[in-house]
Amino acid sequence: MAKEDVAFNDQLNDALRSRQQPDTAERLSLARQLPRQTVALVLAGGRGSRLQELTDRRAKPAVYFGGKFRIVDFALSNCLNSGIRRIGVLTQYKSHSLLRHLQRGWNFLRGEANEFIDLLPAQQRVNEADWYRGTADAIYQNIDILRSYDPKYILVLAGDHIYKQDYSLMLLDHVENGAKCTVGCIEVPRMEATALGVMAIDEKRRITNFLEKPADPPGMPGKPDRALGSMGIYVFDAEFLYSLLDEDFKDAASQRDFGKDVIPRLVRAGQAFAHPLNLSSVPAASRDNPYWRDVGTVDAFWAANLDLASNLPELNIYDRDWPIWTYQEQLPPAKFTPDEGGRHGEIANVIASGGCIIEGSDLTMSVLFSSVRVHSCCKISETVILPGCVIGRGSRLSRVVIDRGCELPPGTVIGEDPEADAERFHRSPGGIVLVTKEMLDRL
């Protein structure tokens, strides 16, 4: 261990033993040091089946978001902006699109400065019978690599949520609590918590109960319509995590999953603490109502994208103090031209990325990813169009998500006849129509 790390640990231990809260300057100093002793592991191997055909060809973390990003960019950007520059990304399901994105857009860290993003696909390192069987198993199968990094703390992240968080403040909270395990959490509408781990905590934020994806989530005391949901973010003391994973591997009944096995075991032993997002969300001004989205359904994906096109979006992607990094193809600027008759069309609340050409059409409240071509006389509203799509002349689209590379013939109408939409495409419970190339090929 480096001399400065030894001095840091001595300083921190002295503060904890004396039970005195360090002053603001000391706490900021500690928060800056902790990321250097941390390795972040991004769990990016899940399919995300609730996104339907959007994940037929790519893992959920590789799904496009916000006009130019991928979902995984948010967790990775949070790491960099928090000062964590040793990162492993664990992949499994249909990982080619994700790996290509990471290789092209995230290869700028300097190995000679002990910075890296290591790609850790499932390799059957522990035995030759099983791929990753769960989130805990994904880390256990790479435990030899993890030990070689020699971290003091391990930050485990889900790679499929949209939010901004300063992880250094969560690490600081973990150390000041004297915790062995800290779980990131956020208040959500009660029935939205059916896709999350749900917890109860005491006055010291010790987790007293944990239910993984309950069908009927319990409400919070005094807030029966709200639940305290796990964000899928965990901080562990490294040696403590290694011993946990060894125990879990020896348990034949375990499903090798953090939410189903590891965290409930720690809760029963009184060893898990909660860290609410409002203690570390970015920007600090948002902490009364921190932004976090699980865009795991077509409806949620559509709504979160369209929010970015609103007048005052809840998520600020233009914040240069906490930038979202990504791979950016070199493309010309977006261009808006009149149609053959000289009509310009009307555009309002639209995000249009590089390489887009919109010709004499009306667009409102929509998000166009790169290299989208909209031919003349179209009417498009509340629609998310992924890269490389072509919208034929005279098309009308409303409340639609169009997957990458689709070409809609002239005069296509989607979003006006629910029965016709359901026969041709996927129509979600909220009435959002998902269109893919395969669906168009079947017409």
TrEMBL record:
Q: Does the keyword Nucleotide-binding apply?
A: yes
The record's annotation in PROSITE patterns points to: ADP_GLC_PYROPHOSPH_1, ADP_GLC_PYROPHOSPH_2
Q: Its Gene Ontology biological processes?
A: glycogen biosynthetic process
Sequence ranges assigned to domain Glucose-1-phosphate adenylyltransferase/Bifunctional protein GlmU-like C-terminal hexapeptide in this UniProt record = 332-435
Domain Nucleotidyl transferase stretches? 40-309
> Which InterPro entries did the record assign?
ADP-Glc_PPase, ADP_Glu_pyroP_CS, GlgC_bac, GlmU/GlgC-like_hexapep, NTP_transferase_dom, Nucleotide-diphossugar_trans, Trimer_LpxA-like_sf
**Keywords attached to this entry:** ATP-binding, Carbohydrate metabolism, Glycogen biosynthesis, Glycogen metabolism, Nucleotide-binding, Nucleotidyltransferase, Transferase
Point out the annotated site residues (description: Could play a key role in the communication between the regulatory and the substrate sites). 92, 131
EC number(s) per entry: 2.7.7.27
Q: Which domain of life is it from?
A: Bacteria
Pathways involved: Glycan biosynthesis; glycogen biosynthesis
Annotated GO MF terms: ATP binding; glucose-1-phosphate adenylyltransferase activity
Task: Quickly give the catalysed reaction.
Answer: alpha-D-glucose 1-phosphate + ATP + H(+) = ADP-alpha-D-glucose + diphosphate
**Which residues are involved in binding alpha-D-glucose 1-phosphate?**
132, 197, 212-213, 230
How would you summarize the oligomeric state and partners of this protein?
Homotetramer.
Instruction: Tell me, in a sentence or two, what this protein's role is.
Output: Involved in the biosynthesis of ADP-glucose, a building block required for the elongation reactions to produce glycogen. Catalyzes the reaction between ATP and alpha-D-glucose 1-phosphate (G1P) to produce pyrophosphate and ADP-Glc.
Q: Which family does it belong to?
A: Belongs to the bacterial/plant glucose-1-phosphate adenylyltransferase family.
The protein depicted here goes by the name Glucose-1-phosphate adenylyltransferase
Organism equals: Ramlibacter algicola
Q: What is the lineage of its organism?
A: Bacteria, Pseudomonadati, Pseudomonadota, Betaproteobacteria, Burkholderiales
